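RECORD TYPE: inverse folding
INPUT: structure tokens
STRUCTURE:
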């Protein structure tokens, strides 16, 4: 089993149409914006010609839409894996902010008491466990080739942190996982050799309406 290279790419979905600026989390009905669709198309071009033999996405609409151009360019079906889904968050449906948002409502403050777990949602350790299982499934499915897993910022960042032995709790502003970015886990057999990161879409669609 050793001596065979496999790459698992963790791809964050493109920009979402969210004019009200709410924390949408796992809520249905939040698809890509016009700019997000351009990002997804760019990802399709990015993986065109790559040795991708397995394509899987979170079941949420924005991830499935982001995976569609990759499916077109690779000729692969889009598998669905619930382990790639966005992190559960008790603030879903509310706006982030101080005045009219989450931080401005005293009833929410008790849920902010422990940022290390975190107290407002799915524990970081649980996210790491499910993402590790999804990555291992993708590695086995694409053994000797490349897999593309389309998901969400927080789970991808937690998977990245767990892979390199970095602590899981963090300041959300410090995540290096831009829209439509690609975090790549390089394996030799079962051993993780390296983690790479690229932003193939750059500033694509700047100025396009959300």
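DESIGNED SEQUENCE:
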């Amino acid at each position: 089993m050793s001596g065979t290279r496999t790459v698992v790419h963790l791809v964050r979905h493109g920009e979402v149409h969210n004019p009200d600026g709410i924390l949408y989390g796992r809520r249905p009905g939040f698809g890509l914006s016009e700019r997000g669709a351009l990002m997804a198309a760019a990802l399709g071009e990015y993986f065109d010609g790559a040795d991708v033999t397995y394509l899987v996405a979170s079941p949420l609409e924005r991830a499935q839409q982001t995976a569609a151009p990759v499916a077109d360019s690779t000729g692969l079906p889009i598998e669905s894996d619930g382990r790639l889904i966005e992190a559960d968050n008790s603030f879903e449906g509310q706006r982030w902010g101080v005045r009219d948002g989450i931080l401005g409502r005293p009833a929410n403050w008790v849920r902010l008491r422990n940022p290390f777990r975190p107290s407002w949602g799915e524990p970081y350790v649980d996210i790491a466990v499910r993402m590790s299982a999804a990555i291992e499934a993708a590695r086995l499915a694409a053994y000797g080739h490349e897999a593309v897993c389309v998901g969400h910022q927080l789970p991808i960042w937690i998977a990245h942190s767990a892979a390199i032995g970095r602590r899981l709790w963090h300041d959300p502003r410090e995540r290096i996982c831009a829209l439509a970015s690609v975090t790549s886990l390089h394996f030799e057999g079962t051993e993780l050799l390296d983690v790479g990161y690229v932003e193939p879409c750059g500033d694509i669609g700047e100025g396009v309406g959300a």
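NOTES: The beta strands are 5-12, 52-57, 79-80, 146-151, 182-188, 191-198.
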